[in-house]
Each structure stands twice: as C-alpha cells, then as structure tokens.
Amino acid sequence: MGTEQLEQSFSSTRAVLVNVTEDQMDLPTPCQSWDVRGLVNHVVGTSHYFAATVTAGKAVESASEGDWASGEFVKSFDEGVAASLEAFGAEGAGEKMVELPFGTLPGAIFMAVASNDAFTHGWDLARATGQSTDLDPALAEELLGIAQFAISEEFRGEDGVAPFGPVCEAPDGGTAADRLAAFMGRTV
Fold first, then answer.
1. Residue 44 and residue 182: Cα distance in Å, rounded?
2. Is the pTM of this model over 0.85?
C-alpha cells in the first residue's frame, strides 16, 4: 500500500510546524479546545499515535501523550512521521482491521483519516500563527473529495464533543486548503 498521500500531508504540516515559535504557544487556534501549544501537542502526538495504533491494530492512546511542545517538537514530529510511514507501509497494513474509538476500519481507511487529520491541523497551525494557508492545493482538493464522501452529519457537532464541527462556508477566492478546513468545520 502506498503512503504517498500521508507523506504529503505530513510534509505540508511540517513546513508550517518549523515556523512555530515559543512566543506563539498561547495563541488561540481554529480548534476552540486548543491553543497553539495544545495543537502542537496534538500534531506531534498523533504522528506517534498513528504508528502505534496501526501496528497494534487498536487505538493506543498512550502513544500520543506528553508535552511535545516543550521540547524539540519538530524532531519528535519527524520521528513520529517516520514511524507512521513505516507502519502504514508494512505488508498487509492496508487490509489490517484497526479498532478505533469511533469504529473498526481497514488500515487503508485509517491512513486516509490520518492524512486528513495531519493536513487539516497543519492548516489550523498556519492560521493560528499567521502563516499562509495556501497549503498543497492538489492534496487539499484530493482530501476534500475524500472527506465529502466519508464524513456524515452524525460525526458533526460542537468542538470537543464531536470529531468535526458543522460545515462552514469558505470565502470566495479561498484556497483549496481553506475549503477543506471549512468543510471540516473551521471558520475560515
């Protein structure tokens, strides 16, 4: 199973993450539950979580725990990315069933979820830290198409309660990544 989409998502988010500075950690983000520090912790932590979960075949919440933002978070992210790409690229990983808090999915579908999560949270970080949100337009369009097909209304609700917020309207002239973020429930 190819990991190109996941690798592109991680790469896009890394390009934003390397520009996050210590003085930005308390800034708010489009994710109402998190400031930049919380979002950095999530982005880095999930890079490790994805690897541990696909390897174990079930959610390994402890893999994402820690205060990643207080250390060398880009280095920790790179380590999680390498582990995730290896885990998802392993023979049989795409067909392997993975038990997640919201259901059991084949590894290939879980990898699509991971790709969208990594990319969209890169957009969140970019928006929160004043960076460009014009992130990999072709990948954003691809992820938007997948999300529009896969995310139903039953997964939408208030921040911190449901995985996704209600669909928002992207502004005219918004980037492809802005349109994806709006579909994922972000105010753009």
1. 23
2. yes
